[in-house]
Structures are given as C-alpha cells and as structure tokens.
Amino acid sequence: MRAQVPLLATVLTALLVLAGCSTVERRVGEGLAGEWTAGPFYEVPNPLPPGAPGTLIRSERLLGAPNGAAAWRVLYHSRDDAGADIAVSGTVIAPTAPAPPGGRTIVSWGHPTTGVAPRCAPSVGADPFDLVEGLTDLIGAGYVVAATDYSNMGAPGPQTYLIGTTSGNSVLDAARAARGLPEAGASNGLLLWGHSQGGHAALFAGERAASYAPELALKGVAVAAPAAELGALLDADIGDVSGVTIGSYAFNAYASAYASRPGVALDSILTPAGAAATPGMAQLCLIGQNDQLHAIADPLIGHYVKSDPATTEPWATILRENTPGSVRMPVPLFVAQGGADTLVRPETTAAFVQRECSLGTAVTSLVIPGVDHGFVADDALSKLLPWLAAPGGSTCPAG
Length: 399
Fold this sequence. Notes:
The chain is 33% helix and 18% strand. It has 13 helices and nine strands. It has a nine-stranded mixed sheet with strand order 1-2-3-5-4-6-7-8-9, sandwiched between helices. 56% of the residues are buried.
C-alpha cells in the first residue's frame, strides 16, 4: 500500500486513459487550460538577441517551493533541431542551505507528456513543483533541480515533441541556466532524470552532452518508461485513445519540424479525418482538457493512420532519427520499467535495454512488477536515489 499517492502519478494514471477531470487534476491544471494567455514572463523578445545556449534571458522567484528550497522560473537560450537560437522556459529549484565547496550537482529533469502547446507547460501551472517526480527527495539529497518546459511550452517556439535533438538540448540548457543563478549554488556536475517523453529527452541529452555541453560533467542518465522505441510505441498504442492522442502530438510536431522534407504532410500518413483533427488536438493539454481530447480522439480509434509510420517514408526515417540508442551512452544508464505498463510496454523497453547493452553501455535495468506507466517513476525512487549518488553497475548479461 502507498501511504501517500504522488500527485503526478495520480494525474498521469487518469490522463493516460483520458478519464474525466478530478478535483486534483483541475488544481494542477489551473493555468494550463481554458483561455490561457502567456504572461509577460513568457514573451520572447522579437528579435531574440543572440545568446549562448543556456544563457538566461530572464528569471523570477517562485513562491510555494518545497520546505528548505528556493525556486525560480527561468527563460533561457537553447537550440532547435536545425541549430536556430530559441527561447525555452522552465523552473529551477535549489536547497536554501549553504552550498558545499565546489557547488551542488544538478539533476536536469525531463517531464512526461502534459501536452505540446504553450499553455501546457508545467511552469505555468498552479503548482509546478508537484510535476517533478522525486523533487522532495532530490532537494533533501542536496541537488539543484532544473526542470525544462521544452520548446513551445510556456514560451512560444518550434515544436519539440519526441524530437530528440531539440528536446535534449532543452534539458542540457536548463542545467546551464541553473548555473546562471548564483543563489542556486550549482556546480558543473550533472545527472539526467526523465519519465516517458522526458526519458526520451534525457536519453538524447545524455548522448549529446559531451559534444553540445562539454563544460558539464555528466555522471549518469536515469529514465523511467522512456519513449525509446518510437516505431514500436506508435504501432502498439495507436489503436487506443491514449495512442491517438500521443500520435497527434508527435505527427503534428514532425510535420512542423520537418516541413521542408518532401512527403511530410499529415495527409501522407493519416486518414482524412485524422489529418483534419490533429492540429486541433495539438492545441489541447492532457491536464485540464482531457474531456475535449477524448471527444476528438475516441472516434478516430482504428481510423487514425492509413499506413504504418515505421515503414512509410519519409516518416520511417524521421522516427529512426528521433529514436535514441543508436550510439553508446557514454555514462552509466538507469532504466526503470513498470511490468503493468500498457503505454510504454515492457517488451519495448527490454528491447531498448538489450540494444544499449550490445553497444557496451553500463545499464542498470529495473522492472517493477504490477506497476503501470503513471507510478513507475515514483516507485523507482528507492533504487534510483542511491544510484544517483554513485552511478554505475550493470545488469547486462556478461560477455
């Protein structure tokens, strides 16, 4: 029995089946739905003055941080898939106690799917701290937590959903932004932690850290139920309401980010009804607007795609480019998976772990029986926290 049900896990479990909003969901979703309009903080200068990746554009203190912590909303420079300078928003949380000599290690967090529109950003919600899984434990352990919103969430920008380079850059540059806050006391030490969509972002960040952010000393990458096998994920889930929703976010992002590629149009992969519905679905958040999503997605079940994106070009190439695990992870990797997960399924995560092992990555794989997608990150914390303190070990087969 869980003595206290984590808020994010509760919300995710409900949202993944797109059930009706509960009181808790409405509280978390305040500011993420309805007629939300970005406040002045999220306004991106036009033109955007040049800035190195991770450079702060602005920051402001946030109220309501966990006991013993201070928090800031941040807007910082990053780079998209094409290398363009973009503005990304997020949150930084740090202990209020004096930092140790040399500073505090940063944990850069990649959040699971909340939507893809600006209003869906965790930092704009009534309680953004509830959306960082393990936050209280991480602050208690002395880490600085950097939590990106991703591009086009909070601050407007290019689409980033399951686009590896852009989302990975957002995660790494959030850590750089944390170092730009003197009060946070952040060092160059870095750990990456992400769940679902955030696991996908953390994996790409880990693969790219040495070349993209060489001043950061990456120690380890930890993920829970990562979106690591995109072709298999879409193939397995597109036949239910959650899969149609996730598909709408992904296809809309890919059609926008890769619009210059021949054949990339929604009607090249989706049915006429699916192509017509997708842009509207991409404007709705999982938190606070799931009734509207349900109404659109439910009639599309079984009638959304017209061919397999994993074998239909140019979509197959786009999926391969945005699937992590093509290169060896240069640091130890922790992978948690729920045995009862019906969204990111155990067999797809097992295939990813096997591929990482074959590349020579030091993988610690944890499968938690009976745990579903919404609870896996929280239920992994008892094993994760000691691992973060000393990343290493491997459950890969010998030889």
